[in-house]
What we know:
The chain is built from seven helices and nine strands. The longest helix is centred in the last third of the chain and has 17 residues, at 153-169. It has helices spanning 2-11, 21-27, 49-54, 105-119, 122-134, 139-148, 153-169; strands spanning 15-19, 36-42, 58-60, 63-65, 72-74, 81-82, 85-86, 91-95, 98-102. The chain has two domains: 2-104, Beta Polymerase, domain 2 (2-Layer Sandwich), CATH 3.30.460.40; 106-169. Helices cover 46% and strands 20% of the residues. It is of the alpha+beta class and 171 residues long.
Amino acid sequence: MAAMVCAALDRHRIQAVLSGGAVVSIYSNNEYESYDLDFVRTGIARKVDVAMEELGFVKEGRHWRHPKNRYWVDFPPGPVQVGDAIVTKFAKRETPLGVLRLLAPTECVMDRLAGYYHWDDPQCFEQAVAVAHHQLVDLQEIEAWSRREHSDPEHFQEKFKQFTSRLELSK
């Protein structure tokens, strides 16, 4: 579904990147499952209405729902970020339905860790661990990002250590 939405947006010259829990679903082989497809628009802001209606989605408040599937689509405001860091390079997945642009595995882990770092969200922690188990991620980049992410680097460094310890225990 995400690739179909991304391809429809592309046909309407709307560049968007899949982020959030749906990316975790993809990278964790559905260890965590999300029916919320968050697409962050990049480049020129254009209305998504025609592309979404073309696919049969109906707008309900700020979300788009399709009467024949359980996925709902949201377009959170840009830019694409993981915590305070702006992301400009994205992963791509070729599918029979089109190309899907999404956060790369390392940025997906950072996105989930941001929820853990800032709000102590244990589900975000578990999602970061799940993605890191299933995908190759750059732990040095994640550590450097962790140090920059907040004015209290020791607090975040401790949480990063909890993350890497959990990865080691889970091997």
